Amino acid sequence: QQAPYYYPNTGYQQAPQNTPQAPPYPQQPMQSVQPYAPMPKQAPSYAQAQPTSMNPPKPPTSTGTKVFIIILCALLAAMIVGFGVYIATTQNKKSSSQNSPYSFSIPGNGDNGGSEYGFDPYSFNQNGGSFTDVEDSITLIADNGETQKRDDDNPDSVGKPDENAKNITLEELPKDKDDAKYTTQTAYDAVIDSVVTVVCYKDKITDNSADIVAQGSGAIISSDGYLITNAHVIGNSRVYAVNIVLNNGDKHQAKIVGYDSWTDLAVLKIDAKDLKPVTFGDSETIKIGDDVIAVGSPGGEKFQNTLTKGVISAVDRELAVNKNVRYIQSDAAISPGSSGGPLCNIYGQVIGVTTAKAVAENFESMSFSIPSATVEQIVGDLMHYGYVKGRTRIGFSGKEIGEGEIAGAPAGVLVSSIDESGSLAGTKLKEGDIITELDGKTITSFQDIYDVLDDHKPDDKITVKAKRASN
Q1: How many Å apart are CA 350 and CA 277, to the nearest integer?
Q2: Does domain 114-143+390-469 have CATH number 2.40.160.10?
Q3: I need a labelling partner for 158 at 20 to 30 A (CA). Which of 11, 20, 43, 173 fits?
């Protein structure tokens, strides 16, 4: 069973029912030992005595003083235990607060999602009614970016793609890569002026910290103001007002040019010139054991420019939260707010974008980054078109439904609205149906749908199965 993962900016994933245990250590054979032989008797040896202090002895502590000290120690111990219980309780609440990396708190929507979906998906079948099977064949359509448009998009956050924007390039390692001059400090110095803090507000940018709904990290990729971060930092949408805090403290409101939920990448743009962009290295050349640093804002702007160090632990990792990316695994520590920051090699080249970490009692120091080779493939399309070309889509809005979340209903994705030009239009499926199977594969989340779509191209025909409440 896999470890749970969470996106550091949005909370913890639900822990598995059976946490994997470390394998038992194999028994080692008994090694031969020399027989015990007593040491020969010798006269005791004494070190030369040191002079003792000539100060007079202190008078004994009074009984009242002893009682006071004992009471003070007891009070301190109680405070420490109480604080520990509070921290543990707080962490437990956080760990159960979110059970999907794609379930984001969208401004203006209630907990039940009613305002987002046009009707309350919990308003039917609450008394455990039965469900009937629905099945039909659908034709997949090309994703032209329509899936990113929302009625509640923030006009101040909608950016325009530019087909003339220059994509990032992956650089080779320095010719003097073996020179001892390359250290953690030189790597940090090379990248720090290009790392930013991403601060998201519900409606508009204010000076009130209570209006902040999310914070993350990012990196400057062009001198004229293009930036990258994680899509989950901006809520996989353009509804937030986004403020960018540069390393020197300057602040700029950002436009969201494009984002890609499949790979968790987003491109932003600020109105600024003469910025220092990061240099990208080629993630295809990294090796297990290479030194790396992660730079970002764990905890938000308050801890901006934080550096953590580690090594490459593994490459080509597949995670349950997103099977569309093969991640770089490292032991560089990341925390909420680190999302979207750069993972760099010892030469200060960005080889990945930090995005997730494993969280479980028996798992430590397992963080994951999107490889720079993947970033290069995705970011160009986001800059030029605002979306990734060549993707397929079905054309509906929905909500993930957990097992038992609706009485009597199976886990799946509830269809809340159908695009008139989408694949479901004119089929047997209706709003309120719960999609449970697509192309023969079980569907319990949007990620499952992405995995199916990733194997197909526009105009492919696939079968969809769903459950419908019998009212």
Answers
A1: 11
A2: no
A3: 11
